[in-house]
């Protein structure tokens, strides 16, 4: 088998290349999403609906800190893809070294702050009533592993920038399989409850870090850095920051969204309503995995070919990515519209031997989730334009439009909608806000993407 190199990004047919990049990315995201999904099913059936709600409260805090690594990874990987496309290997190496240093510095500081303010953060994100104690247990243990997760997220994007999607896929599969195995041992066998769920997830992060470290030390990576590359370089940091801020801002808005949603839903229906949102959140991660996979596969292709000034290939990659992503999004939409009740029932048990309070909570969640799911996913077929459009501007290094388009859905549309519509429509207003925001964001993104294609991606 011929060795895969970054040069292939500028040579292979776009359709074939996108499939080669997107399929491993999709599989990796699928396994990670299955991990979150099955983890939630295990927790819901073996611990209860309150435990699912507790994890949902913790996720935005831990994911925001981990997203620092992803932001540094995506920002730096855009530079690396374009540097490799322009045959500037030294800049690619220096960028990678700076990514590692910056990720370690930032995440360790954020974890220390996160642990110091634990008793304030959890209630602020909806960890009230019976949710607080299990959320605190999960949060404290998880946070110790978050720097390793951040390094994994950063390293994974660099592996893709090198044009090695299969290795990136394996890096995503390993922690997921490890987590599920540890879930069974720690929760079901040892009966450690929330402690077991948290340690299983943390061990998964460590396994992922071990594999990514192996990749970059092995002959499979083109980026062989030395100690001189770790010194922080201001121009590179500025470029990483401007591009990475797009990802960080998206995650920050996501965390704010969780904060607002958990509090609104707690006020509408208590802990069970927060659990409904937890299930919807898992499905947003799981069901859309092929769409996210196409987006991940698209990024290095667009970045490399833009850096090499192959504008016809960039344009073709945009159209092909949207076509593939829209197709799979439509298939996902059909499944979710057809079987929302069956999907909801997977997460929780309605066994009659459960305590009356727990049984009532579980039944409430199972009854309220199907309508919520249908409303949340109603605009799924059109989200490809939104995701690919925002990803394009990030891939080519245009930080400002990438930032604005990334924030359009959640920041400019969704948050105002969930602050207004629930006051008018109650619970339904919360769920319908998702689809309205998707439609509005798609229209805005489509306008700017078409304008970019018609003015900037012209043949030389």
**What integer is the average pLDDT?**
85
Approximate helicity band: over 70%
Give the overall shape: globular
The assigned structural class equals mainly alpha
Radius of gyration: 21 Å
Count the DSSP helices: 15
Sheet having the most strands: none
* Topology as a string of helices (H) and strands (E): HHHHHHHHHHHHHHH
The residue ranges in which pLDDT falls below 50 over 5 or more consecutive positions are none
Task: Estimate the strand proportion.
Answer: under 5%
Termini separation (Å)? 35 Å
By oligomeric state, this entry counts as single chain
Could you tell me the number of beta strands? Answer: 0
What would your notes on this structure say?
The mean pLDDT is 85. With 460 residues, the protein is mostly helical. 83% of the residues lie in helices and 0% in strands. α2 runs antiparallel to α3, α6 packs antiparallel against α7 and α9 packs antiparallel against α10. It contains 15 helices and no strands.
């Amino acid at each position: 088998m011929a060795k895969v190199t970054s040069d292939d990004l500028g040579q292979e047919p776009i359709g074939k290349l996108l499939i080669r990049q997107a399929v491993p990315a999709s599989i990796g995201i699928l396994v990670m999403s299955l991990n979150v999904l099955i983890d939630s099913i295990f927790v819901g059936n073996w611990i209860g609906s309150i435990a699912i709600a507790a994890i949902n409260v913790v996720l935005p805090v831990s994911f925001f800190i981990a997203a620092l690594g992803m932001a540094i990874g995506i920002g730096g990987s855009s530079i690396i893809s374009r540097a490799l496309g322009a045959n500037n290997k030294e800049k690619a190496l220096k960028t990678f070294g700076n990514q590692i240093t910056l990720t370690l510095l930032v995440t360790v500081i954020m974890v220390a702050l996160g642990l110091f303010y634990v008793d304030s953060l959890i209630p602020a994100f909806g960890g009230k009533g019976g949710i607080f104690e299990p959320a605190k247990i999960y949060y404290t243990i998880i946070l110790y592993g978050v720097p390793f997760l951040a390094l994994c997220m950063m390293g994974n994007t660099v592996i893709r920038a090198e044009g090695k999607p299969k290795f990136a896929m394996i890096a995503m599969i390993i922690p997921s399989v490890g987590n599920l195995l540890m879930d069974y041992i720690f929760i079901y066998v040892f009966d450690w409850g929330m402690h077991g769920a948290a340690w299983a997830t943390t061990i998964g992060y460590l396994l992922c870090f071990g594999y990514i470290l192996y990749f970059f030390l092995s002959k499979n990576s083109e980026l062989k850095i030395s100690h001189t590359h770790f010194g922080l370089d201001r121009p590179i940091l500025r470029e990483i920051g401007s591009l990475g801020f797009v990802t960080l801002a998206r995650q920050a808005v996501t965390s704010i969204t969780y904060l607002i949603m958990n509090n609104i839903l707690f006020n509408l229906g208590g802990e069970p309503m927060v659990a409904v949102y937890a299930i919807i959140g898992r499905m947003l991660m799981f069901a859309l995995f092929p769409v996210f996979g196409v987006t991940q596969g698209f990024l290095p292709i667009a970045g490399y070919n833009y850096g090499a000034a192959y504008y016809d290939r960039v344009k073709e990659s945009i159209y092909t990515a949207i076509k593939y992503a829209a197709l799979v999004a439509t298939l996902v939409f059909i499944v979710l519209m057809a079987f929302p009740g069956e999907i909801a029932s997977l997460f929780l048990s309605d066994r009659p031997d459960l305590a009356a309070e727990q049984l009532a909570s579980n039944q409430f969640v199972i009854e309220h989730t199907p309508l919520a799911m249908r409303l949340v996913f109603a605009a799924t077929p059109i989200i490809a334009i939104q995701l690919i459009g925002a990803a394009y501007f990030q891939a080519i290094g245009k930080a400002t439009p990438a930032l604005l388009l990334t924030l359009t859905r959640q920041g400019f549309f969704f948050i105002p909608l969930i602050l207004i519509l629930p006051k008018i429509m109650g619970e339904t207003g919360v769920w319908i806000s998702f689809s309205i925001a998707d439609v509005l964001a798609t229209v805005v993104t489509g306008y700017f993407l078409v304008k970019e294609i018609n003015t900037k991606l012209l043949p030389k």
